[in-house]
Specification:
By secondary structure, the protein is α+β, with helices and mostly antiparallel strands. It has 5 helices and 13 strands. A hairpin with a 5-residue loop joins strand 7 (about 165-170) and strand 8. The longest helix has 16 residues, at about 40-55. It binds 2-oxoglutaric acid (AKG) and fe (ii) ion. 2-oxoglutaric acid binds near residues 146 and 199.
Length: about 250
C-alpha cells in the first residue's frame, strides 16, 4: 500500500483547500459498479472491526491480511450447508457478515449479480477469498485491477472505521471518477467495473467530498479505515504463495 503524509512545510497542519478531485456521493456511470444506499449497523461495524484487530492486526506490523476459503464438498454437507456455501474456510464472523450483506444487498442490485455474489444451492461450488486492508490516515492503495488470473467476477467491499475517496479509472485512463466510500458502506464491482476499470485509494489525510444537499464540496478528515473485500477464487487458484501473490 502507498503512503503520503501532510505537507511538512505547512505551519499549522491546516489543509489549504487542495486541488483534490471532488469525490461523488452517488454511483458514477460505470457498468457493474454499485454503491447502494445500504450501510452496516454501527454494532456490526464495531464487532467486525474488533475481531479483525484482535485476530490479525493488534501488535503486529502488518496492514494487509489475505484469507483463503475452500470449495465445499460432500464432507461439509455440500451445497446444503449454507455457511460453507457462503465462505467455507473463512472465520465465522466473516461468514455472518456475508449473510448480512446478502440480505441488505438483495433489494439494491440486479438479481443476476446477487446470485453471482451469493450463489444458490444449485450453483457450482467455489472458494472465496477475503482481503483485509488497514489504512492509517495518509495511506492508500495504488490503482489496480484485482488479479485476472486468480479471481473471478464479483467483488464486494465494506469500509469500516472511516470513509475515503476511491478513484476509478478506465483502462486507457481517458475517463476517471472519484467516489466517496462512506464509513459502513458497501461497494460492489462486477463486469466492466471489475475487469476494465482500475480502483485505488489515494493516500491522503483528507478527502474533498460532494455535499449531499448541493452545497460546496467540503473536506473530510480520514480516520483509520479497515476494508474487507470478498472475491471468488478461480478454479485452481486457491494455491497460496503463487508467485503473483498481490491483490
Ligand atoms: O480498501 C479498499 O476499499 C480497496 C481494497 C482493494 O482494492 C484490494 O484489496 O484489492
Ligand atoms: Fe482491489
Amino acid at each position: 500500500m502507498e503512503s503520503e503524509t501532510s505537507d511538512p512545510n505547512s505551519l499549522f497542519d491546516e489543509p489549504s483547500i487542495p486541488a483534490y478531485p471532488v469525490a461523488l456521493r452517488t454511483s458514477p456511470p460505470i457498468p457493474g459498479l454499485f454503491i447502494p444506499p445500504v450501510f452496516l449497523t454501527r454494532e456490526l461495524e464495531d464487532e467486525i472491526a474488533a475481531q479483525c484487530m484482535h485476530l490479525y492486526f493488534e501488535d503486529k506490523e502488518v496492514n494487509q491480511i489475505m484469507l483463503f476459503g475452500r470449495t465445499t464438498s460432500s464432507v461439509d454437507g455440500g451445497a446444503d450447508n449454507i455457511d460453507a456455501r457462503m465462505g467455507k474456510g473463512l472465520p465465522p464472523f466473516l461468514i455472518s457478515l456475508l449473510h448480512h450483506l446478502s440480505q441488505i444487498l438483495r433489494p439494491c442490485i440486479p438479481d443476476a449479480l446477487h446470485s453471482l455474489l451469493f450463489p444458490s444451492k444449485n450453483a457450482p461450488p467455489r472458494a472465496r477469498q477475503a482481503i483485509l486492508n488497514l489504512y492509517h490516515p495518509g495511506e492508500g492503495i495504488t490503482p489496480h485491477v484485482d488479479l485476472l488470473n486468480r479471481f473471478d467476477d464479483g467483488i464486494i467491499g465494506v469500509s469500516l472505521g472511516s470513509g475515503c475517496s476511491c478513484d476509478a479509472g478506465d483502462a486507457d485512463v481517458r475517463d476517471r471518477w472519484d467516489l466517496y466510500l462512506p464509513e459502513r458502506s458497501v461497494l460492489v464491482l462486477s463486469k466492466d467495473a471489475r475487469y476494465l476499470w482500475t480502483h485505488g485509494i489515494p493516500g491522503r489525510i483528507h478527502d474533498l467530498v460532494q455535499d449531499e444537499d448541493g452545497g460546496d464540496a467540503y473536506l473530510m478528515q480520514r480516520g483509520t479505515r479497515l476494508s474487507i473485500t470478498f472475491r471468488w477464487l478461480l478454479p485452481g487458484a486457491d494455491i497460496v504463495g503463487a508467485p503473483d501473490g498481490s491483490s
